[in-house]
Design brief:
The chain has three helices and six strands; from the N terminus they run αββββαββα. With about 110 residues, it is of the alpha+beta class. It comes from Clostridium vincentii.
């Protein structure tokens, strides 16, 4: 089951206090970005955030699962809770996650 845009927008609204929250359609599901850095995924209307050490200290209880087959486990986040807590959690996770490596485009041979 693919995620709905309505759910994606709801999640983004719940965490928008963390910074500039955006989403991008990826392989039929959605990547979630904070200030241009990917912090998680939405798959099958479930919000998954990349694991961080700070996340382990902030979340109680911790629920983990892979967002898709053969993926590394992510935190599974329930977005029906406290918006301030969720925004703080995303902001702290964002700070710990590395920036994406940019790929160099291969030049064409003439």
């Amino acid at each position: 089951m693919a995620s709905t845009v309505e759910f994606v927008e709801y999640v983004c609204e719940q965490i928008n206090g963390a910074g500039d929250i955006t989403y991008k359609k990826m392989f039929g599901e959605y990547g979630i970005y904070c200030n241009g850095k990917i912090i998680g995924l939405i798959c099958d209307n479930q919000f998954f955030v990349k694991k961080t050490k700070i996340g382990e200290t902030l979340l109680n209880p911790i629920e983990e699962a892979p967002p898709y087959t053969n993926a590394k486990p992510h935190f599974v986040i329930d977005c029906s809770g406290d918006r301030d807590f969720l925004s703080n959690f995303i902001e702290k996770s964002y700070e710990e996650l590395p920036m994406q490596k940019t790929r160099k485009k291969k030049s064409e041979k003439v």
